[in-house]
């Protein structure tokens, strides 16, 4: 009888499993990661949800804040009803996106809080997140197609060629090290002279602060008085230059008479050129005359008369002149 009972049990168990399998689906299985309570429900409108299953996690900042409860088709796309926990409030102006960390990983819904929080409050029971704040992911087929185009379209080869070109263009490692060493030395010098930079900045600050104190003078320079001054100077300068230029022109024009004079001087110099080779003898003779004749006479200027000759009646006058000079001691 025990054997008969085991046979009946072996037949009934598969039949029950087959009959119950008609109402069993993966979507009805509880999420193994569902660990938060669903205190209130929120509806999010998506254009598409890819393969987001019911029971998928709802994450925010790496923490689970709820799970997906229902997926309902609408005229604009898909309405995703999620159950959120009250212990982790979600800002009302957050954005939502369906994510999948890896192509074969689990799909989940992620909330992104705003960078600049507002006074919109938090999501509550019955809140609706519009499609303008939701992002639908691309389909897996599109992702694989893009990846295939990236691999087969030569992009990888282009990246490799670009890296090779960069390696050829960039300097050698030793040059880079030398440049880095020079830059480091310059930075050390700069750090050691921060006091000079502070002094320069202090001086610039002092100059900048002096402008308000000299406001009146600056206004005079760039005001109506300064403009009149510069206009007067410019007018006077241009007027004198305009007066001077015709005069300079008249000098150049009236100076044409100098041309014949310069021509004559040039011709005289050309004619005198043959006598210059005898110039050394002339200079030597002049030096000898000055040294041996002129200088001794100037030191002791006297004239020795050795004889006087006369003709006719002049002989008696000459004899009387000689007697007078002998009396005076001039003639011996």
Key terms for this structure?
332 residues, alpha/beta, 10 helices, rod-shaped, MlaD family protein, Mce/MlaD, MlaD_Phospholipid_Transporter
Give the topology, please.
Blueprint: H1 2-21, E1 40-46, E2 57-60, E3 63-73, E4 78-84, E5 95-100, E6 107-112, E7 128-129, E8 134-135, H2 140-152, H3 155-169, H4 173-192, H5 194-213, H6 215-222, H7 224-254, H8 258-272, H9 279-299, H10 314-328
Helix pairs in contact: 6-7
CA-atom Rg in angstroms: 61 Å
CA-based shape: rod-shaped
- The beta-strand count equals 8
DSSP helix count? Answer: 10
Strand content: 5-15%
| Sheet with the most strands: spatial strand order | 7-1-4-3-2-6-5-8
Q: How many angstroms does the end-to-end distance come to?
A: 204 Å
Low-confidence runs (pLDDT<50, min 5 residues)? 21-32
Biggest sheet descriptor: 8 strands, mixed
Describe it.
The chain is an alpha/beta fold and 332 residues long. Among the domains are: 32-137; 226-295, no CATH class; 302-332, no CATH class. It contains ten helices and eight strands. It has an eight-stranded mixed beta sheet with strand order 7-1-4-3-2-6-5-8, with no helix packed on it. A hairpin with a 2-residue loop joins strand 2 (57-60) and strand 3. It is rod-shaped, with a radius of gyration of 61 Å. It starts with a helix and ends with a helix. Mean pLDDT is 75; it is low at 21-32.
